[in-house]
Design a protein that fits this description.
The protein is an alpha+beta fold. Helices cover 29% and strands 12% of the residues.
């Protein structure tokens, strides 16, 4: 069976060009509480090794079309965070934005309902949405709120960044819209 799947993937590999896709069904919006003022920070001090890593990641995100230069009033520093496998990732320290963001009340699927959905299944498959958040655009009017600063300069997200308080709700909404509202065929199952 594995050989059949490999053959099928090879036959249709042209459908996956290796570039970041774009899901245009719903942009991410960032509504802040009335009276919230822009928050701007300076970049955190980093070692030369960390600066090199951050520079490469910033360039990768620029190449993918995830970020663009910014001169916004909002700006948050980046920090390096270890992944479970020991490698590092950059994370925008946007706690202050999350504190003034109006919460998205979009409901997420219940885990037990998703498990029940599979009760009679004989074959299981998983799909991985490569950099799924980065496939969802940030609404034009909210991009400035996603600005981050580092020794490379200031950049804002064009695509949905990881770490925003309402990112999961936006992602779930997009998946549900793609699947016609069938909750258990959603990101909770696919990711």
């Amino acid at each position: 069976m594995r050989g059949d799947v490999d053959d099928l993937l090879e036959e249709y590999k042209a459908l996956w060009p290796g570039q970041l896709g774009k899901v245009d069904v719903t942009p991410h919006r960032i509504e802040v509480t009335p009276g919230a003022r822009p928050w701007r920070a300076q970049p955190y001090r980093e070692s030369y090794a960390s600066r090199d890593f951050i520079a490469k990641e910033v360039q990768r995100q620029r190449d993918l079309g995830v970020i663009e230069p910014s001169s916004a009033e909002w700006a948050f520093p980046v920090v390096l965070v270890p992944k479970p496998d020991g490698t590092m990732r950059i994370r925008v320290y946007d706690r202050q934005l999350n504190e003034v963001s109006v919460r998205d009340v979009y409901s997420l699927p219940r885990t037990d309902d998703c498990i029940d959905f599979f009760r009679d299944a004989k074959v299981f498959s998983t799909l991985f949405c490569n950099l799924g958040y980065w496939q969802i655009p940030v609404a034009d009017e909210d991009r400035d709120k996603t600005t981050f600063v580092c020794h490379e300069g200031a950049y804002r997200y064009i695509r949905l960044p990881f770490g925003l308080s309402n990112a999961l709700g936006t992602f779930q909404r997009a998946i549900d819209m793609i699947h016609g509202g069938l909750k258990c065929k959603s990101s909770l199952v696919y990711l």
